[in-house]
Write a structure and sequence with these properties.
Layout (H helix, E strand, L loop, with lengths): L1 H24 L29 E5 L2 E2 L4 E4 L6 E6 L8 E10 L10 E7 L5 E4 L7 E8 L13 E8 L16 E4 L9 E8 L2 E7 L7 E6 L2 E2 L5 E7 L6 E11 L6 H5 L8 E2 L23 H36 L1
Antiparallel strand pairs: 1-4, 2-3, 3-16, 4-15, 5-11, 5-16, 6-8, 6-15, 8-9, 9-10, 11-12, 12-13, 14-17
The chain binds 2-acetamido-2-deoxy-beta-D-glucopyranose (NAG) and calcium ion.
């Protein structure tokens, strides 16, 4: 009996440990770290109308009890929604649940949604209804290809960091200034579509969940990104000659629990200039058909290490399996 108990408790500890590993690795979506003051959730109580509301909206934005419609499926609409509370978190993850849908056939719809973390809020302009020369981070969910010469499949998701010196080039879908991106079939889906933006320790990661499998797929992952604290989260959308309903269902901001060195802690994070230290200039994207910086081929060393890890994993599994099997044998012997 003692043996069984010991075995069960070991198994339990092992299971908890595994679960922990899995949880820590995946998105830190714990409710306790959800920051309500930076989140927009159903039924959007007081949004826009109440003076205590933490979200402002402008333009064509319509707030209902089950979605926030930035633009309806009509031509030449511009709408946005902005958090009124500046964000002072150093490490965060924003989850956006959204829906882009409309009556337009393939390639006859536009223009898309942009998610912002910027110095200025409610600053209208030509980029998905926002200012083209912004300070901070933008993630574009671009549903219409403005560039006839492009070889990309749209909708296309891309990210840009700007210190106010570069203008997003709408005619080229921002290709010359983008940090990375991916294609994603987000339009007219039956199920909900999600985007996650994580910024932690200088690393920017964008993930999408659009296949209704409840799992994140990596879209952008780059290091060397510097963003200050004290900026505002927002979302905006625009339609032109072509249109779509651009709906935000929720924006949930999670604080990530990350240790920083004392030196980092003592910095004034509000004074950081948005920047990216890239190995090559974003302009090189033009020659790179995928516009992707991550695509380094597996070198011999990496393959060797991967194989070694796999081998070690198999050995560990075999040993654990053998021990468990033996324990069971002993137990069986005792019972008979
Ligand atoms: C802004 O970025 C550009 C390059 O993108 C750089 O040349 C310039 O020095 C930066 N300005 C500031 C104030 O950091
Ligand atoms: Ca576009």
């Amino acid at each position: 009996m003692e043996n069984i108990r010991a075995f069960l408790s070991t198994a339990f500890v092992f299971l908890v440990f595994e679960l922990c590993l899995v949880c820590c690795d995946i998105t830190d979506g714990n409710a306790e770290h959800l920051k309500r003051e930076h989140s927009l959730m159903k039924p959007y109580q007081g949004v826009g109308s109440s003076p205590t509301s933490q979200w402002d909206f402008s333009g064509s934005t319509l707030v209902t009890s089950s979605y926030v419609r930035l633009t309806p499926d009509e031509r030449s609409k511009q709408g946005s929604i902005w958090n009124t509370v500046p964000c002072y978190l150093k490490d965060w993850e924003m989850h956006v649940q959204f829906k882009v849908h409309g009556s337009g056939k393939k390639n006859l719809h536009g223009d898309g949604i942009a998610i912002w973390y910027t110095k200025d809020r409610l600053h209208p302009g030509p980029v998905f209804s926002n200012n083209a020369v912004f300070h901070g981070l933008a993630v574009f969910i671009d549903t219409y290809s403005n560039d006839d010469a492009t070889d990309r499949s749209f909708p296309y998701i891309s990210a840009m960091v700007n210190n106010g010196s570069v203008s997003y080039d709408h005619g080229k879908d921002g290709r010359s200034s983008e940090l990375g991106g991916c294609s994603a079939e987000i339009r007219n889906r039956e199920h909900d579509t999600y985007l996650a933006i994580r910024y932690s320790k200088g690393r920017l990661t964008v993930m999408v969940d659009v296949e209704d499998k409840n799992e994140w797929k990596e879209c952008i992952d780059i290091g060397g990104v510097r963003l200050p604290t004290g900026y505002f989260f927002g979302a905006s959308a625009a339609t032109g000659d072509l249109s779509d309903n651009h709906d935000i269902i929720s924006m949930k901001l999670y604080q990530l629990m990350v240790e920083h060195t004392l030196e980092e802690e003592n910095l004034d994070w509000t004074k950081i200039e948005p920047s990216v230290s890239l190995l090559k200039s974003p302009k090189d994207n033009i020659d790179d058909p995928t516009g992707n910086f991550r695509g380094t081929p597996l070198t011999g060393w990496k393959v060797f290490l991967l194989l070694l890890c796999a081998l070690l994993g198999i050995v560990v599994c075999a040993v654990v399996g053998a021990v468990v099997f033996q324990k069971r044998q002993e137990r069986n012997k005792r019972f008979y």
